[in-house]
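Lab notes, practical 5.
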Amino acid sequence: MSGTSTQTAPGTDSMPSLRHASVGDAMHPGIVSCDADAFLTEAAQLMASHDVHCIVVMAASHGEQGGDVVWGLISDLDLMHSGMRPGSHRSARELASEPVVSVRTTMPLRHAGEKMLEHGVSHMVVIDPETTRPIGVLSTLDVIGVLAGKDSRIQTSPEVTGSLTTRMPHGGNYLMPSLPHATVSDAMHPGILACEPDASLPEVARIMVTSHVHCVAVVGISHEEPECGVWSAISDQDLLRAGLRDGETPTARAIARQPLVTVEPSMQLREAGELMAENGVTHLVVVEPRTERPIGILSTADIAGVLAWGEV
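Output from the prediction step:
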């Protein structure tokens, strides 16, 4: 297993507008990588240890120059789908999505965002224009950082004004149950980040970037119930798609496209993963059984964490 930690760029709290930004303005320099022969568990541990949603798979080149080349990418979604299969012992080479979608540092950021949506990916490898070597990764969250007017590479406080409750950090360990024995409560993040239906696109983007999350819940206030109820969710792909439209300033109500799928803490984690796959979502809202009040979020990355640290 090998890995190169994503570097934190110094950056500023002010970024060029989407119209003027390039990939080099928003990308994260450095990659987290593994060998093509690494097992699923090794890739999952790298992803969890470095708190990333994508691993670059490197393989030996048989060309004249030799050395390693990018074989493919493994996302947290890839890990979850493979981990759902009983007795899966696939290698990174088999898990990786290929061909790799790559961009150069000089590409306009808007074009890179359109390329993400075209290929249905959340991460792209950034290559050096001269050497064609991988030098970083561009994610949907990096592009959203530009929409928010903030540099997503800056470490910020998790406290966000306007959130229903603050999402708390969740660390894995080797005492976590294995996937066949784990429940939603073993992997979920308690608390959710939310916005009101009338929140603007930049406001939603700032919540997402400031807390480094890929999903924001949209809440509505019921006149019958004093509690705020979650009625939809905005994914990073939803926000990116809306942000690339010229001349529009949509609200959270208009941006939200994800169907609201809820689970209870006692549900088996494997079942929750299957529910994600059936509904084509990467996040589930966890609700309290008696009141159906939202109490947390379960993501594909959380399930990848169980694959990484769960006891065999």
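Observations recorded by the TA: The radius of gyration is 19 Å. The longest strand covers residues 68-75.
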